[in-house]
Structures are given as C-alpha cells and as structure tokens.
C-alpha cells in the first residue's frame, strides 16, 4: 500500500527520502497543465500542488517545478513554531513576549514587540531568528531530522539557514509536512501541533477557510527599507470547506511588486479550479 510520501514522490518523479508512514488508501495523481495558465494570466511563472485528502487525489500544474527544491523562506516559520512550542522555548503563543530590539527594519510590523501569534501573522523575521537562536543548533538539527523537513540541512547559520542558507524544500515536501501537521501526525506533542495550527493566519473564501503561511525568497532582516527585492514567493497551507480539506503549496516568480499580493488571488483561483473551494 502506498504511503503519502511515496505517492507524492511518484507525482513529481523525484526521489525523496523514505520514511515509512502509516499506510493509506492508494492515491490518484494528476498533472493538469491547464492550471499553469493561471500563472501566465498573472504575468509570471510558478507551480501549484493540491492534495484533496478525502479523495486521495493529488493534482499538480506541472511535473517539473513541483519537485524543484528552493529555500523555504518564511514558510519555515511553521516548523519553527512547532519546535519552539515543543521545546518550551515558547510556553504560551499569546503570553510570551519577544521585545523589539530597537533596530528599524524594512517592514513596520517588525518594529515592535510580538507574541508568537502576532509574529507569525506579521511574518516577523527577527522574532523567529531570536527563537531559532534560543533553540540552538543541536536541538534544531534534531527536530528538523525528526520532522523530516526538506533536505534537513541547517547549514548557513542558525538564524539564517531558511533565508539564505542551505535549507531546501520543494512543493511536494511542503505538502507532505503540512499534511502531517494538519492530521496531528508529526512525531512531537499534540499540544505543539494544535497550537501551531491555531496561530496560522486565516483567509476566508466564501464558505471555505484557508490556513496559510507566505514566504518571500530574497527578503530578510537585513533588507533595507524600500530595497526588498523578492525573487520567489511561497504560499502554503490547507483549505477547509464542508468537511473537505485540501493541502496545497504554491510558488511563483516575483517579477513585479504586484505578484506578492497575487499569491492569494492565484491560490483561490487554483483551489477553485480543482473543486477545493
């Protein structure tokens, strides 16, 4: 019987590491090239993978980019939150406060005190860098291995490996990790998973609820005001409608400033195209 990771690997035609998961019904996988027209209409290029969990159906816009590994950027705030909560680095996502260090950075929402909940909503890089330093390299590596996240490589600095370092993850691996978090199937405490799911930003789309996290490669704490030049934008998460859930991962080339905001527009269109919302 196929497990989720093997089915996803077959879809992307890539060899992924192979940790045995609980067996599930064999999945169906489809490449729908028509989905790629959404990126062209937006004046860019990208990839989309959706996993319709109730149907065991994996749908992708292509068979190439959906398996290409890149920096996770701020989508790493999801596993970073899980690890922070599981280690006790953050005891309460609403009460533990991370004080602003007084350094004015490119994004105004970063320049203030944060809790974990407000930090993930603002995608506050300096807060999560502070969290990573408190976790430390030894524990971070242990957890990245345990979570089987991306290529498991935290080289490049404990507070930079997901921004400019050696960590890489592809859309297929994003789906695999997010699905395990959604189901509470990660090998960490139920509490840390429940709290992480709870703090994720939420977007409404009609009767659907989308829990998500964005990421921009090329933007970090050292970016000067007005000089942020993201190259690729992530949007990952899952959508819920009438008891049906679809886990998704999208990344696009940020060719113009408008493409940053276009990510949510695109994901709603693509989820609609596959009947998820």
Give a structural overview.
There is one protein chain. This protein is α+β, with helices and mostly antiparallel strands and 277 residues long. The protein has a single domain, classed as Beta-lactamase. It has nine helices and seven strands; from the N terminus they run H-E-H-E-E-H-H-H-H-H-H-E-E-E-E-H. Strand 4 and strand 5 form a beta hairpin. Helix 1 packs antiparallel against helix 7 and helix 3 crosses helix 5. The longest helix is centred in the last third of the chain and has 16 residues. It is globular, with a radius of gyration of 18 Å. About 5% of the residues have low confidence.
Concise synopsis of the structure shown:
With 277 residues, the chain is of the alpha+beta class. It has one domain: 3-Layer(aba) Sandwich (Beta-lactamase), CATH 3.40.710.10.
Topology as a string of helices (H) and strands (E): HEHEEHHHHHHEEEEH
Kindly provide the name of the CATH class.
Alpha Beta
Q: Judging by the overall fold, what is the CATH architecture? A: 3-Layer(aba) Sandwich
End-to-end separation: 29 Å
Q: Helix count? A: 9
Question: How many DSSP E strands?
Answer: 7
Shape: globular
Total tally of structural domains: 1
The residue fraction in helices comes out at 25-40%
Strand content range: 15-25%
User: In terms of structural class, how would the helical and strand content be classed?
Assistant: alpha+beta
CATH homologous superfamily placement: DD-peptidase/beta-lactamase superfamily
Strand order of the largest sheet: 1-3-2-7-6-5-4
Low-confidence stretches: 12-24
- According to CATH, the fold-level topology is Beta-lactamase
Radius of gyration: 18 Å
Described by strand count, sense and barrel closure, the largest sheet is: 7 strands, mixed
Overall pLDDT:
91
């Amino acid at each position: 019987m196929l497990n989720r990771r093997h089915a996803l690997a077959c879809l992307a035609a890539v060899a992924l590491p192979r940790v045995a998961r609980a067996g599930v019904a064999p999945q169906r996988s489809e490449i729908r090239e028509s989905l790629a027209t959404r990126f062209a209409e937006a004046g860019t290029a990208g990839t989309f993978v959706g996993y319709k969990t109730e149907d065991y159906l994996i749908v992708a816009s292509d068979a190439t980019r959906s398996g290409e590994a890149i920096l996770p950027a701020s989508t790493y705030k999801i596993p970073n939150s899980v690890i922070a909560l599981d280690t006790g680095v953050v005891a309460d996502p609403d009460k533990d406060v991370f004080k602003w260090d007084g350094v004015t950075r490119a994004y105004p929402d970063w320049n203030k005190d944060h809790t974990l909940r407000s930090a993930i909503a603002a995608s506050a890089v300096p807060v999560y860098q502070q969290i990573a330093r408190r976790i430390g390299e030894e524990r971070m590596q242990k957890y990245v291995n345990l979570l089987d996240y991306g290529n498991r490589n935290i080289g490049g600095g404990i507070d930079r490996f997901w921004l400019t370092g050696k960590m890489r993850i592809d859309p297929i691996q994003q789906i695999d990790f997010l699905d395990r978090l959604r189901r509470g199937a990660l090998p960490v405490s139920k509490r840390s998973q429940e709290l992480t799911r709870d703090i994720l930003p939420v977007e409404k789309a009609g009767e659907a609820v989308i829990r998500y996290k964005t990421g921009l490669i090329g933007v970090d704490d050292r970016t000067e005001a007005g000089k942020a030049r993201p190259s690729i934008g992530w949007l990952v998460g899952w959508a819920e409608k009438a008891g049906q859930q679809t886990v998704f991962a999208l990344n696009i080339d940020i060719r113009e400033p408008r493409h940053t905001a276009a990510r949510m527009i695109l994901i709603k269109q693509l989820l609609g195209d596959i009947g998820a919302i």
